[in-house]
Amino acid sequence: MNIIVCRDYEEMSRKAVELVAESLRETPEGLVSFAGGDTPLGTVHTFAEQVNAGAIDISRAHYVSLDEWVGLSDTDEGSCGLFNRVELLGRLEKPFAGVHVINGAAADIEAERQALNDYIAKYGPLTASVLGIGMNGHLGFNEDGIDFESDAHITPLSDVTKRVMCKYFGEKFHPEYGISQGIRQIMAAKRVILIANGAHKAEILSRAVRGEVTNSVPASILQRHPDCYVVADTAAAAGL
Ligand code: PGA
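Above: inputs. Below: predicted complex with 2-phosphoglycolic acid.
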């Protein structure tokens, strides 16, 4: 694992974008994915700015979202779909060649799961995957106990994730399941960039990076990825 410690959130965001840009220069027709959530907000904004400025060419690249709360669509506050649409895709003046955003409110969620697998199979493997780390070590909705061989799946949310989720949508929604790219697909990415900021992420980040590789801390599997970057601010990197 390559560990990059950044002064602050802005530097973390810029560094993550640099790594994605480098991947896209090597593979302009690649497939990229950004996690939703608080951590990647600055990263996706910076990415969009650089695309609009002509510094990153995505005209031949495809985009796929990482995960979604089952039951929520891209018009629901706090959904990953809304994050993708408003914070990333809607800001791009020069669009990706193609985009697939998971619809958590699909009537046939099993078909939605299959569609995610199909999209990654068609345009993948991922060229660059930008991930956050959950307070329980999850990557997307690869919750503790996940099978490291999993592809796209629908999974019950862990208690930790359910506690954290109220920061995204308060009491408005109470999702019980998540739909997500699987660990096998993430591990097949040419480059993985795990970003983390804030002191509250320090302990779980240190367990993921320095602890044993175990599915009780899903992000620990990234220790076995051949081109993984951990990009963290000084507070999140305190235990590294
Ligand atoms: P956060 O979420 O970026 O909002 O902290 C991280 C995650 O749960 O993956």
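The CA atoms of residues 13 and 43 lie 4 Å apart.
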